[in-house]
Amino acid sequence: MIGRTSLLIDDLISLVSSWAARAGLLLLLTQLTLLGGCASLSDLGGGHFTDLFSSDDEAVIDEAEIAALEALPKLESLWQVKLGESKTAVFAPVYENGALYAAAENGRLVKLDPATGREIWRVDTDHQLSGGVGVGDGMILLGTYKGEVLAFDESGNSLWQARVTSEILSPPQADSGIVVVRTGDGRLFGLDAADGKRVWIYQGATPPLTVRSFAGVLISRGAIFAGFPGGKLIALNLLNGNVGWEVTVAEPHGVTELERMTDISSLPVMDRNEVCAVAYHGKVACFEITTGNQIWAKDTSSNAGLIMDGSYVYISEERGAVIAYDKSSGVLAWKRDKLGSRKLSAPMIARGMRLVIGDDSGHVLLLNRQDGSLVARSPTDDSAIQARPEYLPDGFVVQTRKGGLYAFAL
């Protein structure tokens, strides 16, 4: 394999103005697959892949929809901080041990007071960052385009650096003395949290064409849960990387590699008994944690992600709708569209029966978890919010493509 070829979706869309252009695009993709071995389609929006063969992808948001959204109440702003623009990577702040940590592509890592946004310390890593921020075992973890893992303590002191096989597009995570790193070439690495030395490696099968994913891994109860291309959800032992079970969330279907893309490009979610994941061009499905037996599955498509509470599984669908399924049965509870956007972030569970979502125009939306009704909407800096909003004791915070951190009260 010569290497993964990353195609910018904005460039490709310009080719698709007629059916002839679409046929030419398929030929181009075929050639890239032959030359590069594995091709990855992405846009500057952090892994959102647009279905080029759907006629309504470029549908215009009507004026009545925008007017209704603009009439909604605004959220109370707590503070704003400018950190640094991210051109291709997706970053999300993380709240840990009473502090907020955030990073940007320019190599900057900061620790902030979550109540005021005041900077406690700053580290300029001298690296171009591509993944972060991850936490665990008292460490703050970052990844770079060169496959470097950077570990710091909670005072900003460098602990160690390690190198893996390719770019790191998601936050590394640590638990029980193991740092888990996901790389752009489809591997998972288990590193010793003390010094960064390799403990184990997992390599999954990779289809010829995949969505460029910024999803990391979920660690819980001594296990790692991760979604992969081809609709696979895998549970591994944290300490040795051995596979506990592997299940299929969605089977690839169709003739072309484009049609057969069923990647799980977002984080799975779990509670005490079940783990759920959603695939692009596929399904959402929930499984028993211990056995991997399927509980229920429904047809849907998302590369943004999902979240779960005691009653429902909430999904940000690929065409700008939010949908809720009953957690135990998979019965549809409600669906909310007309949110003013075609691309949403993964949802966040907030107190007061609220659901928080960001969109590609930089707006934050607050929905009622019971029925999906809109509660509030607030702007940021007009650039995309691609990562899930992050919890704060007094509300939540989002990070935009332009590098703005915006904290809101609930």
Automatic annotation (TrEMBL):
<dbReference type="GO" id="GO:0043165">
    <property type="term" value="P:Gram-negative-bacterium-type cell outer membrane assembly"/>
</dbReference>
<comment type="subunit">
    <text>Part of the Bam complex.</text>
</comment>
<dbReference type="InterPro" id="IPR015943">
    <property type="entry name" value="WD40/YVTN_repeat-like_dom_sf"/>
</dbReference>
<dbReference type="GO" id="GO:0009279">
    <property type="term" value="C:cell outer membrane"/>
</dbReference>
<dbReference type="InterPro" id="IPR011047">
    <property type="entry name" value="Quinoprotein_ADH-like_sf"/>
</dbReference>
<comment type="function">
    <text>Part of the outer membrane protein assembly complex, which is involved in assembly and insertion of beta-barrel proteins into the outer membrane.</text>
</comment>
<dbReference type="Pfam" id="PF13360">
    <property type="entry name" value="PQQ_2"/>
</dbReference>
<protein>
    <recommendedName>
        <fullName>Outer membrane protein assembly factor BamB</fullName>
    </recommendedName>
</protein>
<keyword id="KW-0998">Cell outer membrane</keyword>
<comment type="similarity">
    <text>Belongs to the BamB family.</text>
</comment>
<dbReference type="InterPro" id="IPR017687">
    <property type="entry name" value="BamB"/>
</dbReference>
<dbReference type="InterPro" id="IPR002372">
    <property type="entry name" value="PQQ_rpt_dom"/>
</dbReference>
<keyword id="KW-0472">Membrane</keyword>
<keyword id="KW-0732">Signal</keyword>
<dbReference type="InterPro" id="IPR018391">
    <property type="entry name" value="PQQ_b-propeller_rpt"/>
</dbReference>
<dbReference type="GO" id="GO:0051205">
    <property type="term" value="P:protein insertion into membrane"/>
</dbReference>
<feature type="domain" description="Pyrrolo-quinoline quinone repeat">
    <location>
        <begin position="106"/>
        <end position="335"/>
    </location>
</feature>
